Amino acid sequence: MAEAVSKRLALDANLPLDLAEGFPVAHDFREVCVERNYSLWLPPTAVQELTFIAEAGSDPKKKLLAIKALSNLLAWKIQPFDLEPVQHGYAERFSRLLRDRCLLPETEVNDGMILAETSLKGLPMLVTSDAHILDIEPVQLSVAFADKGLVPVTPMHPKPILKTLQGKR
User: What gap in Å lies between CA 85 and CA 75, rounded to an integer?
Assistant: First the structure.
């Protein structure tokens, strides 16, 4: 019998912000995922990023978008999740590893945390439009996950996923 494919996806903070701004690709992506019974999950660091922007953001427009995103997560069927306390330490060490290997810039601590949190939750894919994450060489990322004993996560932009789910080429 074939192994079941996970229909659970993690989202980076930029996807809820895109939904709040009304970007059609983000809304189409979410709607198709919901129609196809995919569950959408938001890692703790992504929730923290949205909360920080909503509470202390310097850009008024982005602040309002973050507030709207946080207010609508459940209505959009996006489920925030948390980890066990010890897992936060694993995520911090994984983020450090990615920066030590120059797979992420030194300033992109949260990107590494979000990748690790996605893995620790057992989610196979992180949907993001963040170039820092999408530009990581896949083999080097897989090796980093293996070196920390984590399940690999595939970062993907929402557009190709949407095209695939809609059956377009």
Answer: 28
Which of these, 48, 147, 130, 49, lies nearest to 96 by C-alpha position? 147
Would you say 12 and 29 are in contact if contact means Cβ atoms under 8 Å apart? no
pTM across the whole model: 0.93
Q: What are the pLDDT digits (tens) for 103-140?
A: 999 999 999 999 999 999 999 999 999 999 999 999 99
> How far is CA 10 from each of CA 55, 56, 63, 133, 144, rounded to the nearest angstrom?
23, 25, 22, 13, 19
CA gyration radius for the chain?
A: 16
Can you give the chain as a three-state secondary structure string?
Answer: CCCCCCCEEEECCHHHHHHHHCCHHHHHHHHHHHHCCCEEEECHHHHHHHHHHHHHCCCHHHHHHHHHHHHHCCCCCEEECCCCHHHHHHHHHHHHHHHHCCCCCCCCHHHHHHHHHHHHCCCCEEECCCHHHHCCCHHHHHHHHHHCCCCCCEEECHHHHHHHHCCCC
d(CA 40, CA 72) in angstroms, rounded, equals 13
Give yes or no for a contact between 84 and 92, defined as CB atoms under 8 angstroms apart: no
Please give the Cα distance from 77 to 29 (Å, whole number).
12
Burial category of 96 from C-beta neighbours within 10 Å (exposed 0-12, middle 13-18, buried 19 and up): middle
